[in-house]
Design goal:
Organism: Chiloscyllium punctatum (Brownbanded bambooshark)
Number of helices: 2
Largest sheet: 8 strands, antiparallel
Family: Belongs to the neurexin family.
Protein name: F5/8 type C domain-containing protein
Radius of gyration: 22 Å
Pfam families: F5_F8_type_C
CATH topology of the largest domain: Jelly Rolls
CATH architecture of the largest domain: Sandwich
InterPro entries: FA58C (IPR000421), Galactose-bd-like_sf (IPR008979)
Helix content: 10-25%
Shape: elongated
C-alpha cells in the first residue's frame, strides 16, 4: 500500500467575470452605449443584453481585464439576449501587458472555438491547456449571417498565486510524505496507517490536495 500518492484537486474553476466592474471590459468598438462591453456578462440582460460592435467583421474583439495574472481553465459564451446576434466561432488572445498578445493554441495549432447557434444557450469550453494571463480577448471569426456579432461571456479559473502555491505544495509534500513512509516501513506499527494519520494531522492542505493510497 506504499507509497502514499497525493493528487492536485481540480478546484481552479471559479467564475472570474461575474463580479468584475464595467471598467474591466473594453472592445474594438460599440454599436451604441447600450451595447457596450460592460454588458457582456453571461446570463445578464443589462443594456441591450450584451456587447455588439459597430461593424461586424473579423477586426472586432471583446477584452477583459482580470485585474491580476490569473490561471484560466475554461470559457463560456452566449449571444446577445433576445436578439439574432451571436458568434459562431472565435479565437482567444491573452496577454500580461495589453501590448504583446498570444493566440491560444491546441495540439500546436491555432485554435478556433465553436460558438453559439442562438442568442441564449451557453456554450462552455474547458481549455486543454490552461492559460496564465491578466488580459483576455475574444475575437469573433464568424457570426449569425442574418444578424450581427453579439456576445456575453464568462471566464473560469483561479488566482495565479493560488495555482503556483498548490503546484509547489503538491511537489514538495508528495516527496516528503514518500520519504517519511519509506523510513517508517521498517517499523512494526502498520506503516501505511501511521503515515496516513501523520499526514492528516500535520500536513493536510485540503484546498490543494487529495490523498489517496496507490
Amino acid at each position: 500500500m506504499l507509497p502514499l500518492r497525493l493528487e492536485h484537486q481540480d478546484n481552479c474553476d471559479n467564475q472570474l467575470v461575474s463580479d468584475l466592474p464595467q471598467s474591466a471590459f473594453s472592445s474594438s468598438s460599440v454599436l451604441s452605449s447600450s451595447h457596450n462591453p460592460g454588458f457582456a456578462k453571461l446570463n445578464r440582460r443589462d443594456g441591450a443584453g450584451g456587447w455588439s460592435p459597430k461593424d461586424s467583421d473579423k477586426y472586432q474583439w471583446l477584452q477583459i481585464d482580470l485585474g491580476e495574472r490569473t490561471e484560466i481553465t475554461a470559457v463560456a459564451t452566449q449571444g446577445r439576449y433576445g436578439s439574432s446576434d451571436w458568434v459562431t466561432s472565435y479565437v482567444l488572445m491573452f496577454s500580461d501587458t495589453e501590448r504583446n498578445w498570444k493566440q491560444y493554441r491546441q495540439e500546436d495549432n491555432t485554435w478556433a472555438f465553436p460558438g453559439n447557434s442562438n442568442a441564449d444557450s451557453v456554450v462552455h469550453h474547458k481549455l486543454q491547456y490552461s492559460v496564465r494571463a491578466r488580459f483576455l480577448r475574444f475575437a469573433p471569426l464568424q457570426w449569425n449571417p442574418t444578424g450581427r456579432i453579439g456576445m456575453r461571456v464568462e471566464v473560469y479559473g483561479c488566482s495565479y498565486m493560488t495555482a503556483e502555491l498548490c503546484d509547489t505544495a503538491v511537489y514538495i509534500i508528495e516527496h516528503l510524505a514518500n520519504i517519511l513512509c519509506k523510513l517508517l516501513s521498517a517499523e512494526t506499527l502498520k506503516p501505511a496507517k501511521l503515515c496516513e494519520a501523520i499526514w492528516k494531522r500535520n500536513l493536510a492542505l485540503p484546498q490543494c490536495l487529495d490523498m489517496k493510497e496507490s
